[in-house]
Amino acid sequence: MTTLRQLRFLVALSDTQNFSRAAELSNVTQSTLSSGLKELEARLGVKVAERTTHSVLMTPEGTDLAARARDILARVKDFEDVAKKASQAGVTRLRLGAIPTVGPYLLPPALPRIREKMPGVQIYLREELTDTLVSGLVEGRLDLALIALPHDLPSQIETELLFEDGYSLAAPRGHPLANLETVEGEDLAGRELLLLERGHCLQQHALSSVPGLALQEDKSFSATSLPTLVSMVEEGIGVTLLPGVATDAGLTKGHELHLSRLAGATPRRVVLVWRQSTAQAALFRQIADIFRDTRSSLRTGPAAH
Protein backbone atom coordinates (compact mmCIF):
# COMPACT_ATOMS: atom_id res chain seq x y z
CA MET A 1 0.00 0.00 0.00
CA THR A 2 1.19 3.49 -0.80
CA THR A 3 1.99 5.36 2.43
CA LEU A 4 1.86 9.02 3.39
CA ARG A 5 5.57 8.79 4.16
CA GLN A 6 6.29 7.77 0.57
CA LEU A 7 4.17 10.66 -0.69
CA ARG A 8 6.16 13.06 1.49
CA PHE A 9 9.40 11.60 0.09
CA LEU A 10 8.09 12.13 -3.46
CA VAL A 11 7.10 15.76 -2.78
CA ALA A 12 10.44 16.48 -1.12
CA LEU A 13 12.35 15.08 -4.11
CA SER A 14 10.20 17.06 -6.53
CA ASP A 15 10.77 20.27 -4.55
CA THR A 16 14.54 19.88 -4.17
CA GLN A 17 15.56 17.83 -7.25
CA ASN A 18 18.25 16.37 -4.98
CA PHE A 19 18.25 13.15 -2.91
CA SER A 20 20.46 14.55 -0.16
CA ARG A 21 18.41 17.72 0.36
CA ALA A 22 15.15 15.76 0.05
CA ALA A 23 16.34 13.44 2.82
CA GLU A 24 17.22 16.42 5.03
CA LEU A 25 13.81 17.95 4.37
CA SER A 26 12.16 14.64 5.31
CA ASN A 27 14.37 14.14 8.42
CA VAL A 28 15.56 10.72 7.22
CA THR A 29 18.77 9.28 5.84
CA GLN A 30 19.35 9.34 2.10
CA SER A 31 19.22 5.54 1.94
CA THR A 32 15.85 5.53 3.72
CA LEU A 33 14.44 8.06 1.28
CA SER A 34 15.84 6.23 -1.74
CA SER A 35 14.46 2.91 -0.48
CA GLY A 36 11.03 4.43 0.14
CA LEU A 37 10.89 5.89 -3.36
CA LYS A 38 11.95 2.60 -4.94
CA GLU A 39 9.15 0.86 -3.05
CA LEU A 40 6.73 3.52 -4.31
CA GLU A 41 7.89 3.04 -7.90
CA ALA A 42 7.50 -0.71 -7.59
CA ARG A 43 4.03 -0.31 -6.12
CA LEU A 44 2.90 2.11 -8.86
CA GLY A 45 4.75 0.53 -11.74
CA VAL A 46 6.24 3.83 -12.96
CA LYS A 47 9.53 5.67 -12.62
CA VAL A 48 9.13 8.94 -10.74
CA ALA A 49 12.67 10.22 -11.33
CA GLU A 50 15.70 9.65 -13.52
CA ARG A 51 18.83 9.31 -11.42
CA THR A 52 22.32 10.22 -12.59
CA THR A 53 25.59 10.62 -10.72
CA HIS A 54 25.16 14.35 -10.24
CA SER A 55 21.50 15.19 -10.73
CA VAL A 56 17.87 14.13 -10.45
CA LEU A 57 15.30 14.71 -13.20
CA MET A 58 11.64 14.15 -12.41
CA THR A 59 9.81 12.14 -15.07
CA PRO A 60 6.52 13.55 -16.44
CA GLU A 61 4.71 10.86 -14.44
CA GLY A 62 6.70 11.78 -11.33
CA THR A 63 5.88 15.47 -11.70
CA ASP A 64 2.17 14.72 -12.07
CA LEU A 65 2.15 12.32 -9.12
CA ALA A 66 4.04 14.82 -6.94
CA ALA A 67 1.37 17.44 -7.64
CA ARG A 68 -1.34 14.96 -6.68
CA ALA A 69 0.63 13.98 -3.58
CA ARG A 70 0.74 17.62 -2.45
CA ASP A 71 -3.05 17.79 -2.68
CA ILE A 72 -3.45 14.52 -0.75
CA LEU A 73 -1.07 15.69 2.00
CA ALA A 74 -2.91 19.01 2.28
CA ARG A 75 -6.21 17.15 2.70
CA VAL A 76 -4.63 14.96 5.36
CA LYS A 77 -3.52 18.14 7.14
CA ASP A 78 -7.11 19.39 7.07
CA PHE A 79 -8.25 16.01 8.43
CA GLU A 80 -5.78 16.31 11.31
CA ASP A 81 -6.85 19.90 11.98
CA VAL A 82 -10.40 18.71 12.64
CA ALA A 83 -9.14 16.38 15.33
CA LYS A 84 -6.83 19.01 16.85
CA LYS A 85 -9.63 21.54 16.97
CA ALA A 86 -11.74 19.07 18.95
CA SER A 87 -8.92 18.29 21.38
CA GLN A 88 -7.37 21.70 22.08
CA ALA A 89 -10.10 23.21 24.25
CA GLY A 90 -11.07 25.85 21.75
CA VAL A 91 -7.55 26.98 20.72
CA THR A 92 -7.28 27.36 16.95
CA ARG A 93 -3.87 28.01 15.38
CA LEU A 94 -3.98 29.51 11.90
CA ARG A 95 -1.15 30.15 9.44
CA LEU A 96 -2.11 33.24 7.46
CA GLY A 97 -0.21 34.44 4.41
CA ALA A 98 -0.45 37.87 2.80
CA ILE A 99 1.02 39.64 -0.21
CA PRO A 100 3.29 42.64 0.58
CA THR A 101 0.93 45.14 -1.07
CA VAL A 102 -1.96 44.22 1.26
CA GLY A 103 -0.63 42.66 4.46
CA PRO A 104 1.31 45.62 5.95
CA TYR A 105 -1.69 47.92 5.51
CA LEU A 106 -4.67 45.71 6.40
CA LEU A 107 -3.26 43.37 9.05
CA PRO A 108 -2.01 45.84 11.72
CA PRO A 109 -5.48 47.31 12.33
CA ALA A 110 -7.29 43.99 11.68
CA LEU A 111 -5.39 41.65 14.00
CA PRO A 112 -6.40 43.41 17.26
CA ARG A 113 -10.03 43.11 16.14
CA ILE A 114 -9.57 39.40 15.48
CA ARG A 115 -7.98 38.92 18.93
CA GLU A 116 -10.86 40.81 20.56
CA LYS A 117 -13.63 38.93 18.79
CA MET A 118 -11.87 35.54 18.60
CA PRO A 119 -9.70 35.14 21.74
CA GLY A 120 -9.22 31.44 21.04
CA VAL A 121 -7.62 32.05 17.62
CA GLN A 122 -3.83 32.30 17.34
CA ILE A 123 -2.50 33.59 14.02
CA TYR A 124 0.98 33.08 12.60
CA LEU A 125 1.86 35.37 9.68
CA ARG A 126 3.81 34.84 6.46
CA GLU A 127 4.40 37.63 3.93
CA GLU A 128 5.16 36.20 0.47
CA LEU A 129 4.38 36.74 -3.20
CA THR A 130 1.15 35.35 -4.65
CA ASP A 131 2.54 32.24 -6.34
CA THR A 132 4.30 31.16 -3.14
CA LEU A 133 1.19 31.76 -1.06
CA VAL A 134 -0.98 29.70 -3.42
CA SER A 135 1.57 26.88 -3.36
CA GLY A 136 1.58 27.09 0.44
CA LEU A 137 -2.18 26.63 0.52
CA VAL A 138 -2.17 23.70 -1.90
CA GLU A 139 0.66 21.98 -0.03
CA GLY A 140 -0.84 22.60 3.42
CA ARG A 141 1.86 24.99 4.71
CA LEU A 142 -0.75 27.75 5.04
CA ASP A 143 -4.38 27.71 6.13
CA LEU A 144 -5.56 30.90 4.42
CA ALA A 145 -4.09 33.85 2.54
CA LEU A 146 -4.75 37.44 1.51
CA ILE A 147 -4.09 37.91 -2.21
CA ALA A 148 -5.32 40.09 -5.09
CA LEU A 149 -7.09 39.03 -8.27
CA PRO A 150 -6.99 38.57 -11.19
CA HIS A 151 -4.64 35.63 -10.76
CA ASP A 152 -4.89 32.03 -11.94
CA LEU A 153 -5.87 29.77 -9.04
CA PRO A 154 -6.09 25.97 -8.85
CA SER A 155 -9.54 24.44 -8.63
CA GLN A 156 -9.17 23.37 -4.99
CA ILE A 157 -8.91 26.98 -3.77
CA GLU A 158 -11.97 28.81 -2.41
CA THR A 159 -12.12 32.62 -2.68
CA GLU A 160 -14.01 35.17 -0.59
CA LEU A 161 -14.10 38.73 -1.95
CA LEU A 162 -13.13 41.33 0.66
CA PHE A 163 -13.07 44.58 -1.31
CA GLU A 164 -12.18 46.17 -4.63
CA ASP A 165 -8.98 48.19 -4.49
CA GLY A 166 -8.62 51.19 -6.78
CA TYR A 167 -5.56 53.32 -7.52
CA SER A 168 -4.14 56.77 -7.02
CA LEU A 169 -1.44 58.36 -9.14
CA ALA A 170 1.52 59.48 -7.04
CA ALA A 171 3.53 62.33 -8.58
CA PRO A 172 6.35 64.53 -7.22
CA ARG A 173 5.74 68.18 -6.42
CA GLY A 174 5.99 70.30 -9.55
CA HIS A 175 5.01 67.51 -11.90
CA PRO A 176 2.47 68.49 -14.61
CA LEU A 177 -0.10 66.09 -13.07
CA ALA A 178 0.54 67.14 -9.47
CA ASN A 179 -2.22 69.78 -9.37
CA LEU A 180 -5.06 67.47 -10.39
CA GLU A 181 -7.45 65.90 -7.88
CA THR A 182 -8.44 63.32 -10.49
CA VAL A 183 -6.52 62.01 -13.50
CA GLU A 184 -7.94 60.16 -16.47
CA GLY A 185 -6.34 57.20 -18.18
CA GLU A 186 -5.54 59.38 -21.17
CA ASP A 187 -3.38 61.59 -18.93
CA LEU A 188 -1.02 58.62 -18.54
CA ALA A 189 -0.67 57.90 -22.26
CA GLY A 190 2.99 58.04 -23.23
CA ARG A 191 4.17 58.26 -19.60
CA GLU A 192 6.26 55.49 -18.07
CA LEU A 193 5.33 54.28 -14.59
CA LEU A 194 7.65 53.29 -11.78
CA LEU A 195 6.53 49.83 -10.66
CA LEU A 196 7.38 46.96 -8.36
CA GLU A 197 9.78 44.32 -9.65
CA ARG A 198 8.49 41.29 -11.50
CA GLY A 199 6.85 38.67 -9.30
CA HIS A 200 4.58 41.18 -7.58
CA CYS A 201 1.06 40.80 -8.94
CA LEU A 202 0.51 44.55 -8.47
CA GLN A 203 2.92 45.19 -11.35
CA GLN A 204 0.61 43.54 -13.89
CA HIS A 205 -2.53 44.81 -12.16
CA ALA A 206 -1.29 48.40 -12.45
CA LEU A 207 -0.26 48.04 -16.09
CA SER A 208 -3.73 46.73 -17.01
CA SER A 209 -5.68 49.11 -14.77
CA VAL A 210 -6.85 51.48 -17.50
CA PRO A 211 -9.27 49.77 -19.94
CA GLY A 212 -8.22 50.14 -23.55
CA LEU A 213 -4.85 51.72 -22.72
CA ALA A 214 -1.55 49.85 -22.54
CA LEU A 215 0.36 51.64 -19.78
CA GLN A 216 4.14 51.69 -20.03
CA GLU A 217 6.67 50.64 -17.39
CA ASP A 218 9.86 52.57 -16.67
CA LYS A 219 12.25 49.62 -16.93
CA SER A 220 15.26 51.62 -15.79
CA PHE A 221 14.02 51.37 -12.20
CA SER A 222 12.04 48.82 -10.21
CA ALA A 223 11.26 48.60 -6.52
CA THR A 224 10.93 45.76 -4.03
CA SER A 225 8.24 47.45 -1.91
CA LEU A 226 5.63 50.19 -1.94
CA PRO A 227 7.57 52.38 0.54
CA THR A 228 10.53 52.26 -1.85
CA LEU A 229 8.28 53.32 -4.73
CA VAL A 230 7.00 56.25 -2.68
CA SER A 231 10.55 57.39 -1.92
CA MET A 232 11.49 57.16 -5.61
CA VAL A 233 8.54 59.35 -6.57
CA GLU A 234 9.35 61.84 -3.83
CA GLU A 235 12.87 62.17 -5.24
CA GLY A 236 11.42 63.12 -8.62
CA ILE A 237 12.43 59.92 -10.42
CA GLY A 238 8.94 59.39 -11.86
CA VAL A 239 5.28 58.65 -11.15
CA THR A 240 3.53 55.48 -10.00
CA LEU A 241 0.15 53.97 -9.20
CA LEU A 242 -0.51 53.11 -5.57
CA PRO A 243 -3.34 50.84 -4.33
CA GLY A 244 -6.09 52.38 -2.26
CA VAL A 245 -5.66 50.14 0.80
CA ALA A 246 -2.05 51.35 1.13
CA THR A 247 -2.72 55.06 0.67
CA ASP A 248 -5.77 54.95 2.93
CA ALA A 249 -3.61 53.30 5.62
CA GLY A 250 -1.16 56.22 5.47
CA LEU A 251 1.57 54.93 3.15
CA THR A 252 2.41 58.42 1.85
CA LYS A 253 2.05 60.28 5.16
CA GLY A 254 5.00 62.59 5.71
CA HIS A 255 6.19 62.39 2.10
CA GLU A 256 6.37 65.37 -0.26
CA LEU A 257 4.29 64.14 -3.17
CA HIS A 258 0.80 64.50 -4.58
CA LEU A 259 -1.92 61.86 -4.92
CA SER A 260 -4.60 62.06 -7.60
CA ARG A 261 -7.50 59.65 -7.89
CA LEU A 262 -7.28 57.54 -11.08
CA ALA A 263 -10.77 57.73 -12.59
CA GLY A 264 -12.27 54.79 -14.43
CA ALA A 265 -9.54 52.36 -13.42
CA THR A 266 -10.22 48.64 -13.17
CA PRO A 267 -9.61 47.82 -9.50
CA ARG A 268 -7.83 44.73 -8.31
CA ARG A 269 -9.97 42.44 -6.13
CA VAL A 270 -8.55 41.66 -2.70
CA VAL A 271 -9.71 38.23 -1.54
CA LEU A 272 -9.23 35.78 1.29
CA VAL A 273 -8.49 32.28 0.00
CA TRP A 274 -8.33 28.80 1.50
CA ARG A 275 -8.56 25.13 0.48
CA GLN A 276 -12.04 23.88 -0.31
CA SER A 277 -11.32 20.77 1.75
CA THR A 278 -10.80 22.69 5.00
CA ALA A 279 -13.09 22.08 7.95
CA GLN A 280 -12.74 25.72 9.06
CA ALA A 281 -14.48 27.58 6.24
CA ALA A 282 -17.09 29.06 8.62
CA LEU A 283 -14.31 30.50 10.82
CA PHE A 284 -12.51 31.88 7.79
CA ARG A 285 -15.66 33.68 6.64
CA GLN A 286 -15.92 35.33 10.06
CA ILE A 287 -12.33 36.51 9.67
CA ALA A 288 -13.19 37.78 6.19
CA ASP A 289 -15.98 39.90 7.74
CA ILE A 290 -13.44 41.46 10.12
CA PHE A 291 -11.12 42.27 7.22
CA ARG A 292 -14.01 43.95 5.38
CA ASP A 293 -14.92 46.04 8.42
CA THR A 294 -11.29 46.99 8.91
CA ARG A 295 -10.93 48.14 5.32
CA SER A 296 -14.05 50.26 5.64
CA SER A 297 -12.65 51.96 8.74
CA LEU A 298 -9.47 53.17 7.03
CA ARG A 299 -9.45 56.80 5.96
CA THR A 300 -10.52 57.30 2.37
CA GLY A 301 -9.51 59.45 -0.55
CA PRO A 302 -6.14 60.60 -1.91
CA ALA A 303 -4.50 63.59 -0.31
CA ALA A 304 -1.51 65.78 -0.99
CA HIS A 305 1.31 65.73 1.52
Give a quick summary of the entry.
The chain is an alpha/beta fold and about 300 residues long. Helices cover about 40% and strands about 20% of the residues. The chain folds into three domains: about 5-75, Orthogonal Bundle (Arc Repressor Mutant, subunit A), CATH 1.10.10; about 80-165 and about 270-295, 3-Layer(aba) Sandwich (D-Maltodextrin-Binding Protein, domain 2); about 165-260, Periplasmic binding protein-like II (D-Maltodextrin-Binding Protein, domain 2, 3-Layer(aba) Sandwich).
Write up what this structure looks like:
- This protein has 305 residues and is an alpha/beta fold.
- It folds into three domains: 4-73, Orthogonal Bundle (Arc Repressor Mutant, subunit A); 82-164 and 269-297, D-Maltodextrin-Binding Protein, domain 2, CATH 3.40.190; 165-262, Periplasmic binding protein-like II (D-Maltodextrin-Binding Protein, domain 2, 3-Layer(aba) Sandwich).
- 42% of the residues lie in helices and 21% in strands.
- The chain contains ten helices and 13 strands.
- The strands form four sheets. A five-stranded mixed sheet has the order 4-3-5-13-6, sandwiched between helices. Strands 8-12-7-11 form a four-stranded mixed sheet. Strands 1-2 form a two-stranded antiparallel ribbon.
- The longest helix is centred in the first third of the chain and has 28 residues, at 60-87.
- The chain is globular and about 70 Å long.
- 35% of the residues are buried.
- The model has no long low-confidence stretch (mean pLDDT 89).
